[in-house]
Amino acid sequence: MWIEVILFAAASFWVGLSGAMVPGPMLTVTISDSLKKGSRAGPLVVLGHVIAETILILLLVLGLGWAIGSKQVTMFIGGIGGLMLIYIGYTIARSPIPTEIPGDGEPVEKRGSVLSEIVTSVTNPYFYIWWATVGWAFMLKGIELAGIIGVFSFLLGHWGADLSWYSVVSFFTSKGRHVLPGKRYKIMMIICGVFLVFLGVYFIYSTLIA
Description:
- By secondary structure, this protein is mainly α.
- The chain has helices at about 1-20, 25-35, 40-60, 65-70, 70-95, 110-120, 125-145, 150-175, 180-210.
- It starts with a helix and ends with a helix.
């Protein structure tokens, strides 16, 4: 059984990694926060994502999967989520150029990164769609394989993929911030912000035509 559990965790890791590598709000928040706060922003963003996913898993376990997969809920989440992404993107694009970017040994605004990712996760309709389909299927497979141990092996692989990928992204982005002074830093922040705004508009549009 333990070999199957390890293989299941490895499969969960690679599935999670393939999803983590797709550009989206989480990547944008990681890049923007890493430019401002350093390489520790990546793990903090992942922490916010884990908190959001834990809440969603509890809702699924409590039997609310039908609501997560319903068209009405998806439209509501898409509309509200789109507006929130537009707002976050606007604030990122409008953020001032820092006169001094903190180093890795200096204090980091932990709450900002964690809360930003919780917001971008819970307002992203595809977050719910993925968990109501792929994620829930993996949970059930884990239960079938080894009960609660199977579920934990899936979560370990899934969250391990997120932590690995976004830590790497955050590390290299934070190193690049030393060569992104002034206007180049501002351009990068504008790109991140505009991407979130367009993504928010897409969320709203996709819910209207659904």
